[in-house]
Amino acid sequence: MTELNNPLLSASDRELHEECGVFGVFGVENAASLTYYGLHALQHRGQEGAGIVSVDRTGRFTRIKGEGLVTEVFSEERLAKLAGDRAIGHVRYSTTGGGGIENVQPFLFRHNSGDFALAHNGNLVNSEQLVRYLEDRGSLFQSSSDSEILAHLIKKETNRANRPRIHAIVDALNMMEGAFAFLVMTANRIYACRDKYGLRPLSIGRLGDGYVVSSETCAFDVIGAEFVRDVEPGEIVTIDRHGLRSMDYSQYKRRLMCAMEYIYFSRPDSDIEGCNVHAFRKETGRRLFHEAPAEADIVIGVPDSSLSAASGYSEASGIPYEMGLIKNKYIGRTFIQPSQELREKGVRMKLSAVKSVVRGKRVALIDDSVVRGTTSRRIVAMLRDAGALEVHVRIASPPIIAPCFYGVDISTYDELACAHHSVEEVRRMLGADSLAFLSPEALFKAGGRSELCLACFSGNYPTALYRSVEEANKDGKF
After folding, report:
1. Which residues are tagged catalytic?
2. Domain 278-448 has CATH 3.30.300.30
3. Domain 11-254 has CATH 1.10.530.10
């Protein structure tokens, strides 16, 4: 789902975000309640909206959605209205058109060929062309999210309404280009679909006699489901009373998982295509030390996504790992402050330096990435204020030099510190004593992989973009 710049947010206020997570249940009683717990486990993938659609025994669809966290949108009373043994859910980070209740998923569509709901994680790079194609044929869009495109593509062939729904889904997916993991739920089944490049994760689990589908495997553990397998790139898995059935909608298949899923987005207790996220990050930390050793007294990780890499760096170096930064877990969602002075205080609300740990020490500060550099600069200054003698910044990923077109809110070159500056220039911007990044080769070795999407690190995109990078950079849109 395409990210547009929010004019209310300055670049210094925004962190790196991936837009959403999907979760589905088929053939298990109280499916909506299980979906609630699944979405709670995926809350890190989106905090601005959540929704659930359920189907009861009569085939009636019920939807509840809202803006806010999962716990804010749903109550016991609201969940009780979502009857049935099948449901799909979604957590959202605001993307196309910004926020707004109209963009909160799952979307629910009424149609004479049968009602259906869908939820989407990812971003289509040919959305503008598809919207124009559909509107020329009479489609009216109810949201500004590119996720709605799939529904209109499915419904567009009204003269062939009697053929099985999966054929319309196959045709629709073959018209789409980009990164996506879709869940489509009809009255009788759930279809789990993944893009042919394998850019976004999607996994299937077993729960009793039924099945669950999730953007991350960490959600399976919460509800006691057992991992079965990943949805393959270019595959549609049909889940119904017959069990699992598979169909390839594309013979072109790659395994270009977004490297940022391992580096930043996913929870450390998730497994992505057979590799545990914590283990991956810890190995990047080990390799980071061998590539860029620092003379330091302590190793500190930036909570939370960098702690595993910091642990690996400490083990490889023999330098003690310390909890030198503490994250306030109860701050809730980011709010906009009216002045720069108050924004500076907002950072300290999120992170605090432990003075007794860092005072008088040479610190090796491990972080997962540098995007705009603003947060890193504030953390370095915070450690110096707390008495650190030296701060040596080590980044467990390569420099981000290019926008992402596949669902990460890195929309323009202007926002990227490393796109226009050398490592030495960035070091001075951060106020660090030294700065080093992990090599791209280390990412492949850390995950034991031969393929990854490294587009934001290299500028080499695995798909056609349908717009030039210069056009996207000019108007700030993907």
Report:
1. 20
2. no
3. no
